[in-house]
From TrEMBL:
It comes from Moellerella wisconsensis ATCC 35017. This is Putative pre-16S rRNA nuclease. Keywords: Cytoplasm, Hydrolase, Nuclease, Ribosome biogenesis. The keyword Nuclease applies. Residues 4-104 form the YqgF/RNase H-like domain. GO terms for molecular function: hydrolase activity, acting on ester bonds; nuclease activity. Pfam families: RuvX. Could be a nuclease involved in processing of the 5'-end of pre-16S rRNA. Gene3D superfamilies: YqgF/RNase H-like domain. It is an enzyme of class 3 (hydrolase). GO terms for biological process: rRNA 5'-end processing. NCBIfam families: RNAse_H_YqgF. One of its GO terms (cellular component) is cytosol. The gene is yqgF. Its EC number is 3.1.-.-.
Length: 138
């Protein structure tokens, strides 16, 4: 097993959560979330995270319907992933993110009640779940 550094993004049209993890420890932690307009973030903020952490791999959560079919936001997430690769030359993998937000909300509520359910915290916690789920499969 290698010791790659991995960033995961929980894509959303209004907010994009980010998490960082290590392949060798199979752990992840929340970084931050970015506001987005129709799925387009402030790319300078994304660039700052990429430069700071210099990931070997970037995981982008792929939003699917419960039956595995695509929805409108699925294509937007793919476009976001393609732009990440094009702008920063990072290796990208898409990963099924079904129910990651539900799980993130439940975890945050359990640890801090309603006050913990800040949108930015939910998005970055969802990115942690996406990354940990990916790490479990390798």
């Amino acid at each position: 097993m290698s010791g790659r550094t991995i960033i995961a993004f929980d894509f959303g049209t209004k907010s994009i959560g980010a998490a960082i993890g290590q392949e060798i420890t199979r752990t992840a932690r929340a970084l931050t979330s970015f506001k987005a307009k129709d799925g387009i973030p402030d790319w300078s903020q994304i660039e700052k995270i990429i430069k700071e952490w210099q990931p070997d791999l970037v995981i982008v959560g792929l939003p699917l319907n419960m039956d595995g079919s695509y929805q409108q936001v699925t294509n937007q997430a793919r476009k976001f992933a393609n732009r990440l690769h094009g702008r920063f030359g990072v290796q990208i993998e898409l990963h099924d993110e079904r129910l990651s937000t539900v799980e993130a909300r439940a975890n945050l509520f359990d640890s801090g009640g309603f006050r913990a359910l800040d949108k930015g915290k939910v998005d970055s916690a969802s990115a942690v779940i996406i990354l940990e789920s990916w790490l479990e499969k390798i």
